[in-house]
Write a structure and sequence with these properties.
There is one protein chain. With 458 residues, the chain is mainly alpha-helical. It folds into two domains: 356 residues, Fumarase/aspartase (Central domain) (Fumarase C, Chain A, domain 2, Up-down Bundle); 71 residues, Ribonucleotide Reductase Protein R1, domain 1, CATH 1.10.40. Helix content is 60%, strand content 4%. It has a two-stranded antiparallel sheet with strand order 1-2. Strands 3-4 form a two-stranded antiparallel ribbon. Strand 1 and strand 2 form a beta hairpin. The two termini are 54 Å apart. It is an enzyme of class 5 (isomerase). Keywords: Isomerase, Lyase. Belongs to the class-II fumarase/aspartase family. Its EC number is 5.5.1.2.
Length: 458
């Protein structure tokens, strides 16, 4: 079993290499410890626990400040994982081990009034907030590279494809702007989801009853209000949002975060799929700056970054679906298995999103456009790439049916131009201009500029 905090080595999930340190078992353990410390500090914050006890607990267990995992507590992750089996979660053995590290006078303030789900949920939100912040940084880098590509390739004409076939002209800049809009939208949604992640503190069944009773000796006149202040103080210690209610069986924090992560991976998957297609040998319009090789074929220049991003995009939606299934099947005041199913699912989704975003940042920073390949692709369809435009332009002169029949007889660009020039009713038209794909780009330039200015195309 790995002892460095990694979920695994990434041998079979290379897109996740480098992401394990953000959410491995060691990181989760440190977050669990931080949650326990935060609760003790919150009790001191509402004048129930002695301030000196909270400071001793913080110092002994490695408190690093609001929003940070703990460090230096000395709990062994392998030992805790094995001990967690009998109770079904790691908090039960963790509390006993942490109390063993504390002075006898301070032990009563650890885990006071809390239930295991309070600790696990809050810890996972803490891990998600920190890992999500890294994902946002990577997505911002992707956006910057795509914006630069859209600007540089704004007017570079390429063949658009629909249903796998050449359709009409577009530009490489429009492709990049389209990818950019998807990534930007996903980053915004993820940022909002992370900002709203709440702490969890409800006690055994979400009523705060134990907290009220523990607060009553110090706050006899307003024990209920003191318990609510405790929840707010606890959330503040973790730098998480204050929950409206305990969300033991109302799992929107998990599903909304999961949906935002899936949307981010979707947007990156869209980019990866296009790059993989356009990097095909027979197309070659795009290439990665550092392609991968082959164990058998030395000539291969594989678009490995795009492939890895696609691997994440194929897995992420099913992980999101599992989170929704768990949320829909949460029962009573504590889920019996549905809650447990979320833990590794959410962590794997975070891991994939971070790995995909990091890979996409490197890919987009070095994406290479092959102008010669673009021209070669354009020539494959010849003038037929602007057939839509020709049908519109010729209809007033030939009628719809005759115009379409004429266009249908052409087999290549030369024959199309010959047929058009042979029509006496078209003598007043500039046939060369009509056949120019660069003159049939619609409002692409304006739309790209709006995206680059931070707006949205109408």
């Amino acid at each position: 079993m790995p002892t460095d905090g990694a979920v695994d080595r990434g041998l079979l999930s290379p897109v996740s290499i480098g992401a394990a340190d953000a959410m491995g078992d060691g990181v989760v353990l440190d977050a669990l410890v931080a949650v326990e410390i935060a609760l003790t500090r919150a009790w001191a914050g509402i004048d129930v626990a002695p301030a000196i006890a909270a400071e001793r607990v913080s110092d002994r267990l490695g408190w690093l400040g609001a929003g940070h995992p703990a460090s230096g507590h000395g709990i062994d992750v392998d030992d805790l994982a094995e001990a967690a089996v009998s109770g079904g979660n790691p908090v039960i053995p963790l509390v006993s081990r942490l109390r063993g590290l504390l002075d006898e006078a301070d032990r009563e303030w650890l885990h006071r009034g809390a239930t295991s789900q309070d600790v696990v949920d809050s810890a996972l939100m803490l891990v998600a907030r920190r890992a999500g912040g890294r994902i946002l940084v990577e997505l911002e880098g992707v956006e910057g590279s795509l914006a630069a590509l859209a600007r540089a390739q704004r007017d570079h004409v390429v063949a658009a494809r629909t249903l796998g076939q050449h359709a009409v002209p577009t530009t490489m800049g429009m492709r990049a702007a389209t990818w950019l809009v998807g990534v930007r939208r996903a980053r915004g949604r993820l940022a909002l989801a992370l900002e709203q992640l709440p702490a969890q503190l409800g006690g055994a069944a979400g009523t705060l009853a134990a907290f009220v009773e523990h607060a009553r000796p110090t706050h006899p006149a307003d024990a209920e209000a003191a318990a609510l202040r405790l929840v707010a103080a606890f959330a503040d210690e973790l730098d998480l949002a204050v929950p409206d209610l305990p969300w033991h069986t109302v799992r929107w924090p998990v599903t909304e975060l999961g949906d935002a992560l899936v949307q981010a991976v979707d947007a990156l998957g869209r980019l990866g799929a296009d790059v993989a297609t356009l990097a095909r040998t027979e197309i070659g319009e795009l290439a990665e700056s550092t392609p991968g090789g082959s164990s058998a074929m030395p000539q291969k220049r594989n678009p490995v970054g795009a492939v890895l991003i696609r691997s994440a995009a194929m897995r992420a939606p099913q992980l999101g679906a599992t989170l929704h299934s768990a949320a829909a099947l949460a029962v009573d005041e504590r889920p019996d298995g549905a809650w447990h199913a979320e833990w590794s699912t959410l962590r794997e989704l975070l891991r994939l999103a971070l790995g995909a975003a990091s890979t996409a940042r490197a890919l987009t920073a070095g994406l290479v456009v092959d102008g010669a390949a673009v021209e070669r692709t354009l020539a494959l369809s010849g003038g037929m790439l602007v057939a839509e435009r020709l049908a519109i332009a010729l209809a007033p002169h030939l009628g719809d049916d005759r115009a379409r029949a004429l266009l249908g007889r052409a087999t290549d660009a030369a024959e199309l131009e010959r047929l058009l020039l042979a029509e006496p009713t078209l003598a007043g038209l500039d046939i060369s201009a009509l056949l120019d794909p660069g003159a049939y780009l619609g409002a692409t330039g304006i739309m790209i500029d709006r995206v680059l200015d931070g707006g949205h195309p109408a």
